[in-house]
Design a protein that fits this description.
This protein is an alpha/beta fold and 385 residues long. The protein has one domain (41-383). 24% of the residues lie in helices and 16% in strands. The chain has helices spanning 14-65, 93-96, 104-108, 149-154, 198-202, 241-247, 356-359, 362-370; strands at residues 72-73, 91-92, 124-125, 140-141, 174-185, 188-195, 208-211, 254-258, 268-272, 279-280, 286-288, 314-316, 321-326, 331-335. A hairpin with a 2-residue loop joins strand 5 and strand 6. The chain is globular.
Length: 385
């Protein structure tokens, strides 16, 4: 009988397994930041592409109507009530651009609502259009968009082109509600929202909105100092690319930007709906997605001038700053910098003309970029990435 010998290979010891696992864990820890950095770079590129599409859509709108889209179809101009909600569409400029974002079907299913109790002088009651969709004429007045059942239904459409992939906007749970309109007038930045619930939570959301300048459209009243920084995307605006070119220049003026629509840390208080996002202002500075939404840069508690994201400021999840589309269609990052005012400094913004010491700060450069006719040409390179 032939006998064969067989050598057995010893198994790994427990210590050897633990060493291998430790090495793998170490390698993962070293690679994770690099992977996250690459992922964020990709997300930022997608976000920039989204904003660029909005700018291109605005240019195509201009080609058809010889003017840029309004920031919103809001309160009749001039606004005699300042901060009171008057009966009107309150449809955002983003919604007006839907046909130019390959979302013509959504736009056509939005509807005229009415009747309107009072039509201001110079305006007329909105009428149905032959192509379908709401009457978005600058002198048309219809009922609030949310009073139309079809509007409430189609406003629930989720549009990826309006969401920044760096922000978990779709999965965010709000504690307060969803913005359904916002307006900017004479230093008054205000909005209206549906409280958290089935309808509010189901509305399509957006990370992008038009730039109204420092505080938006100014009525013919004594200058509060901020009127020089009126932006492109104002309520019922009629701005043209030609005007902006000869005023401050399209490559020097912000048109669309990013925003979280609410706080960026802890529980999300608000998000913004694309149908009613309206416009945002730059007076409050830029908000960091991981910044404190309750403390001012000087350490004091404050409701508006804070380092973090709020419903009132442009903000983002990106590390360096907020991405904006300029009037010429280019997309650049405006750095967070020191764009947020302290509580002790902001009263100076009401002193016309704006004090020279503020014009050269990060805050002043941001307002210069936001304004379409301020006339300032201070070097903005330090604030641009």
């Amino acid at each position: 009988m032939h006998m064969t010998s067989r050598r057995t290979r010893p198994a790994f010891t427990l210590i050897e397994l633990l060493v291998v696992i430790a090495i793998i864990a170490l390698l993962m820890a070293l690679l994770l930041p690099a992977i996250q950095k690459v992922r964020e770079a990709g997300n930022k590129m997608i976000c920039a592409s989204n904003i660029r599409q909005l700018a291109v859509a605005a240019h195509n709108y201009h080609a058809d109507f010889q003017k840029l889209p309004p920031g919103q179809l809001g309160t009749p101009v001039p606004n005699p009530y300042r901060t009171a909600l008057t009966q009107c569409q309150y449809i955002s400029g983003v919604a007006v651009l839907l046909p130019y974002l390959e979302q013509d079907n959504v736009f056509k299913n939005l509807q005229i609502t009415g009747p309107v109790a009072t039509v201001p002088t110079g305006y007329h009651t909105g009428t149905a259009t032959k192509a379908g969709g709401p009457d978005v004429g600058l002198n048309s007045i219809t009922d609030y968009w949310w009073n139309g059942s079809n509007n409430r239904l189609w406003a629930q459409t989720k549009l990826k082109v309006l969401q920044c992939p760096s922000d978990d906007l779709a999965g965010a749970t709000t504690t307060v509600g969803t913005t359904i309109s916002s307006d900017s007038y004479d230093s008054n930045i205000y909005g209206y929202y549906f409280a958290t619930g089935p309808l509010a939570d189901s509305l399509g959301r957006t990370n992008y909105t038009g730039c109204a300048g420092a505080t938006g459209r100014q009525t013919p009243e004594p200058d509060d100092g901020l009127g020089i920084y009126e932006g492109i995307m104002i309520n019922r605006g009629r701005n043209t690319l030609g005007q902006i070119t000869v005023q401050d220049g399209t490559s020097n003026t912000l048109m669309f930007g990013e925003q979280l629509g609410g706080s960026g840390t802890a529980s999300r208080d608000f998000v913004a709906s694309w149908i009613g996002v309206g416009m945002n202002a730059t007076w409050f500075g830029l908000g960091r997605g991981n910044g404190d939404s309750t403390r001012n840069p000087d350490g004091t508690a404050d409701s508006f001038f804070v380092m973090g994201a709020t419903p009132y400021n442009f903000s983002s999840r990106h590390a360096a700053g907020v991405q904006f589309a300029f009037g010429d269609g280019s997309v650049r990052t405006v750095k967070f910098g020191q764009t947020v005012l302290t509580t002790t400094v902001y009263p100076q913004t009401f002193q016309p003309p704006i004090p020279a010491n503020l014009q050269f700060t990060d805050w002043g450069i941001l307002q210069q970029l936001a304004g379409r006719k301020d006339g300032f040409s201070n070097d903005s390179a330090s604030l641009l990435e």
